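dumping these here so i dont lose them again. two proteins, back to back, each one seq then structure tokens. dont judge the mess
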Amino acid sequence: MGQWLSWVKSNEKQLFGILNNLAKKAVETSEVLIDLFENFDKAEDYHNKIKKLEREADGLTRSVFAELNKTFITPLDREDIQRIASKTDDVIDNIEGVSGRISRYHITSTPPYMLEIAKELSKATKEVEYMISRLKNVKGDKTIINHCRNTSDLEHTIDDLYRTALAQLFETNDAINIIKMKDLYEVLETASDKCVDVADVVEDIVLKYA
């Protein structure tokens, strides 16, 4: 009987705990990216740290899906939990994509505006971490929406920096460098979009239970 009940109803504490740990990985990864841009001579070391965090995040994401597959009744809609986990993991994947490209493209110094964008992205991951930490009380906490809006505002700031960086990049003449840098900026900007994706899911949940 007990085993049957454990399948019917999820281990809510464990599920939210995994999501919280995943969000913390996003914050930690974004902070290592800042370290990379501030200490570019050690870029490869920081890239290796980011790769390790990305693998750990993949494991946590798989754990979320495994936990959901073990149960019938979940504390929030199954699809919402899956989207939050996947999009948070996407943030980390894109950050690893940036550090990996820096290594593969043999970038030798911090590109213009990259550090500024990374700092704004780190703020966005902290908003994501807060929102996910409040999921267990989401049904009675409309203040979470303010953090969803904060994430969107940060994404707009990153978009402005991104456009400025591209405008300056296209004024240069090295075609190969333009291709490499454009790719880097796009992947980093996409990481902020994924933070907004998480915020959108959380806002939908808040409004659903309002």
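---- next one ----
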Amino acid sequence: MEVRSIYRYARISPFKVREVTREIQGLPVSAALDLLAFTPKKAAFLIGKTLKSAVANAENNANLKADGLVVKEAVVGEGPTMKRMMARARGSGSRILKRTSHIRIVLSDEIEIETRETRKAKREQEKKEAKKETKAGETAERSTSSAGKKATKPKKSRQRKGKEITFYGTKS
């Protein structure tokens, strides 16, 4: 089941928030909260607030345990931009864009939580399969190469002022 939480009109640029949301996607909730707690950015605080809200929604509204939840997606959209003026030289003015963002976090309990141990076991299994394939490929290659050897022309070489020049298959 999926549970979501949205923080609307957050007073921070979406570009700055996306940097942090990319890091927590696909992580279990506990790992994501730990990562956010040790990230020294304003965006991490706002995302942490939204993530805690999503966990509370899961526990209270959907009767799910926080241990089995995974961050399925963390999306940041652009909110309305407030435009301000700042005085510049010679009586002119320039615009200041105060950007806002909408932070949406979706949690799911259907995605399998991948721990270090399972990831390590999976990697070792892939290595074993790769070794088997290479051994099978080498034995097949040896049998075909010994049966179908082709006569090749020997390469000729000349030496010219300390540099060796090699010619392949030319007449001289």
